[in-house]
Amino acid sequence: MKHLLKMLDLETEEILEILDLADQLKYELKHGISHPHLKEKSLGMIFQKASTRTRVSFETGMYQLGGHPLFLSSDDLQIGRGEPVQDTARVLSRYLDGIMIRTFEQKEVEDLAKYGSIPVINGLTDFCHPCQILADLMTIREVKSSFDGLKVCFIGDGNNMANSLIVGCLKVGMSFSIACPDGYHPDGQVMAFASGYGDKFTLTNKPMEAAQDADIVITDVWSSMGMESEIEARKRAFAGYQIKDDVMAAAHSDAMVLHCLPAHREEEITEKVFEAHAKEIFEEAENRLHAQKAVMVKLMGE
Ligand code: CP
Ligand code: NVA
């Protein structure tokens, strides 16, 4: 593994190795065992979109690994004024040991990896959010002990989260059911991947059907970053796609709820369901730190 660009690129074995290392790093952090695996290494973090969790967890994670994180807002970089990504990649490769980038187009992330000579980590694009899915898988395994026989249900937009969850969950052996309105389906590349999993993957426009006997219920915002002009139309399209009591009643009684955050209460999830599952949701947020540290050690460590 040279980069983390999308879940589609990872072998199941690589995912499990990252999760095992993440568990170990979490244990070490909780027990005061230092782990300076990235001493004297620098990570550049390019942000073309807002962030709370990704920025703070990468920055703190890099510090905990003994390295140096640099926050690079696209407002201040020449890339924001049109310097080509090919040139940015070749320049940054001469200063840094790794780049994390949050941007719009997946192609920009792929190009950064193609033209640069250091590891690139995708911190979210319109297409996918692999760092979040690694944290989600880590959280699921912590709570449920194993992935065996589990069913994941996603209700909402076929967006970057859905695209990555479908691939990650199927790769580790869980089954996956997604409910989204017509016109808001996951990406075609992801649908093609999922079609190879037979009845372990289902797509419906009926949330209750998707939630039936689910062990993990997941949602995300109806309008992702960059879709601000579609907010009102999306509120109408997604009105019936909320995680609420009747959806949870269709799932297993001990079903977990995950949300990558930020959450819009009373839109994609009710306040009641969110607060009833706050423990898992904030553990999931914490696990961003541990999962990303594992990714950085795998990609940037000796
Ligand atoms: N879940 C997530 O990526 O959060 P941020 O947008 O705050 O980084
Ligand atoms: N789908 C959301 C995820 C935010 C972490 C977005 O792209 O805005």
In brief:
With 302 residues, the chain is an alpha/beta fold. The chain has helices at 12-30, 53-64, 85-92, 106-115, 130-144, 160-171, 188-195, 207-211, 231-237, 245-250, 271-276, 278-300, and strands at residues 42-47, 68-73, 98-102, 120-122, 151-155, 175-179, 201-204, 216-219, 256-259. The mean pLDDT is 98.
What features would you describe in this structure?
The longest helix has 23 residues, at 278-300. By secondary structure, the protein is an alpha/beta fold. 43% of the residues lie in helices and 14% in strands. Strands 7-6-5-8-9 form a five-stranded parallel beta sheet. It starts with 11 loop residues before the first helix and ends with a helix. It has helices spanning 12-30, 53-64, 85-92, 106-115, 130-144, 160-171, 188-195, 207-211, 231-237, 245-250, 271-276, 278-300; strands at residues 42-47, 68-73, 98-102, 120-122, 151-155, 175-179, 201-204, 216-219, 256-259. Phosphoric acid mono(formamide)ester binds next to α2.
Task: Looking at this protein, list some descriptive labels.
4-stranded parallel β-sheet, 302 residues, binds phosphoric acid mono(formamide)ester, 12 helices, binds norvaline, 9 strands, 5-stranded parallel β-sheet, single chain
